[in-house]
């Protein structure tokens, strides 16, 4: 495609101004290789896949919005709270949204209040609300399209710098999407970074956890190791990569996830308990032998 054809496709994605978004490439169809960056007067795009030549940038006219953003940044206050659009309805209002939650092991997290999930009637998306941990207020949302005509498949509303979190466990696992974060939340805290790259702004939200697992989808295992190395270099002490050999985490229920992450820990705990019991039995047996020897001495047998 030439530049104008690519531009028409990218503009058709409807990416709002002042947004950086990563998604599946609309040109080569490779997963999560395409980035779009917009400002109030420009749009740029690039595909990281070696076989794809999609890239370009268009600069528009210098509007007053551009002037304000460029020269009056000190007057711009960051958005403190994300206002839910009128198109966000309760998730029970749409059968497709409920089906998505059930099929991707999100229903339990929704029902137990670990995740606040809505349905966007305007964009036909199931929407996972993102809260700012410091204020407990909504900072943004992440929507997943419910049919093949909704593009991009994942869409980010509001603040892009706070990851989606689900659960309150002492250990956390970094995953690619919100559904996987919900699926693990009965066992670990799920943290969705919406892609395969960890933003610098994400790191401060990872500090409270004792152990950090990185479990990106199977086709991004190399990126899991890169993120783990990056976190270790940043001073995080207990970072582990969990390699997914078959399916994404959202394909597993709670029992499978517990076994996947804590199988060996439970076996080690059981072995330690058995060793402790054996030592106690050994001490009791030794005491019995000593008492028997003492009685035999007193009886003059030995």
Overview of the molecule:
This protein has 302 residues and is of the alpha+beta class. It folds into three domains: 73 residues, Single Sheet (N-terminal domain of TfIIb); 165 residues, Dna Topoisomerase Vi A Subunit, Chain: A, domain 2; 39 residues. 32% of the residues lie in helices and 22% in strands. The chain has seven helices and 14 strands. It has a five-stranded antiparallel β-sheet, with no helix packed on it. It has a five-stranded mixed β-sheet with strand order 10-12-11-13-14, with helices on both faces. Strand 13, helix 6 and strand 14 form a beta-alpha-beta unit. The protein is elongated, with a radius of gyration of 27 Å. 30% of the residues are buried.
Main attributes of the structure:
3 domains; 302 residues; elongated; five-stranded mixed β-sheet; single chain; N-terminal domain of TfIIb; five-stranded antiparallel β-sheet; Dna Topoisomerase Vi A Subunit, Chain: A, domain 2; alpha+beta
Residues in β-strands, percent: 15-25%
> Which regions contain 5 or more consecutive residues with pLDDT less than 50?
73-78
Give the structural class.
alpha+beta
For the record, the CATH architecture of the largest domain stands as 3-Layer(aba) Sandwich
At the third CATH level, what is the topology name of the largest domain? Answer: Dna Topoisomerase Vi A Subunit, Chain: A, domain 2
> What sort of overall outline do the alpha carbons produce when their principal axes are compared?
elongated
Topology:
Layout (H helix, E strand, L loop, with lengths): L2 H9 L7 E5 L10 E5 L3 E6 L7 E5 L4 H8 L16 E3 L4 H9 L3 H5 L5 E4 L4 E8 L4 E9 L8 E5 L5 E3 L5 E4 L2 H7 L4 E4 L19 E3 L6 H13 L5 E3 L12 H45 L4
């Amino acid at each position: 495609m030439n530049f104008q054809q690519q531009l028409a496709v990218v503009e058709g994605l409807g990416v709002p101004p002042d947004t950086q978004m990563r998604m599946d490439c609309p040109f080569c169809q490779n997963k999560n290789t395409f980035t779009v960056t917009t400002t109030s007067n420009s749009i740029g795009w690039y595909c990281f896949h070696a076989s794809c030549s999609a890239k370009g940038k268009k600069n528009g006219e210098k509007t007053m919005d551009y002037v304000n953003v460029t020269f009056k940044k000190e007057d711009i206050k960051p958005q403190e709270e994300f206002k839910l659009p009128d198109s966000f309805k309760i998730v029970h209002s749409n059968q497709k949204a409920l089906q998505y939650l059930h099929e991707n092991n999100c229903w339990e997290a929704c029902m137990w209040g670990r995740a606040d999930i809505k349905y966007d009637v305007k964009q036909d998306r199931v929407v996972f609300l993102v809260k700012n941990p410091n204020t407990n207020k909504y900072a943004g949302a992440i929507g997943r399209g419910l049919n093949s005509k909704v593009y991009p498949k994942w869409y980010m509303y509001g603040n892009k710098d706070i990851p989606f979190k689900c659960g309150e466990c002492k250990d956390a696992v970094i995953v690619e999407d919100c559904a996987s974060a919900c699926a693990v939340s009965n066992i670990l805290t799920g943290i969705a970074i919406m892609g395969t790259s960890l933003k610098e702004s994400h790191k401060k939200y990872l500090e409270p956890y004792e152990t950090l697992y990185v479990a990106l989808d199977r086709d991004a295992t190399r990126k899991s190791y890169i993120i783990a190395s990056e976190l270790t270099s940043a001073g995080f002490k207990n970072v582990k990569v969990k390699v997914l050999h078959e399916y994404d985490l959202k394909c597993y229920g709670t029992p499978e996830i517990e076994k996947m992450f804590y199988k060996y820990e439970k076996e080690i705990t059981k072995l330690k308990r058995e060793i402790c019991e054996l030592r106690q039995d050994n001490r009791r047996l030794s005491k019995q032998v000593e008492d028997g020897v003492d009685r035999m001495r007193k009886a003059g047998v030995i």
